[in-house]
Design brief:
By secondary structure, the protein is α+β, with helices and mostly antiparallel strands. It is built from 3 helices and 3 strands; from the N terminus they run βββααα. Strands 1-2-3 form a 3-stranded antiparallel beta sheet, with no helix packed on it. The relative contact order is 0.15.
C-alpha cells in the first residue's frame, strides 16, 4: 500500500517504495468508468457524417494523456504533436474513447 501524495479531482497520485530494490515509484490513477459511460451516451446522440467545421471525436481522461506523454516523450496536446494524438485517437485500442465514428 502506497502513500497518497495528491488528490486532484478524480486523479490520485500515490508514492510506492520497494525496499528490495530501493526504488520509489509515483503512480497516478483515475477512475475512467464515468468517462466511458459519458462517451457511450454522447455516441448515441452524435450525428453521423462530417458536414460542418467542428466535431467532437473523443473524450480522453487526463491519466491517459499523461501516459501517452511519457510513452511518446512529448506533450501530445501540443500543436506540433497533433499527428501523434490523431494516431492514438484512430488506434483501435482506444476506440472506446471515440464519441464519433470514422477516421480523424
Amino acid at each position: 500500500m502506497g502513500k497518497i501524495l495528491d488528490i486532484n479531482g478524480d486523479m490520485i497520485e500515490t508514492h510506492h517504495y520497494d525496499a528490495d530494490t530501493g526504488r520509489s515509484i509515483i503512480e497516478t490513477t483515475q477512475d475512467v468508468e464515468p468517462y466511458l459511460k459519458q462517451i457511450e451516451d454522447e455516441k448515441k446522440e452524435t450525428v453521423s457524417g462530417w458536414k460542418g467545421d467542428l466535431h467532437k471525436v473523443a473524450t480522453i481522461p487526463l491519466v491517459l494523456i499523461e501516459q501517452w506523454n511519457q510513452e511518446l516523450k512529448c506533450n501530445v496536446l501540443a500543436k506540433e504533436n497533433r499527428h501523434l494524438l490523431m494516431l492514438k485517437i484512430n488506434d483501435r485500442n482506444y476506440q472506446k474513447l471515440r464519441t464519433k465514428e470514422g477516421r480523424v
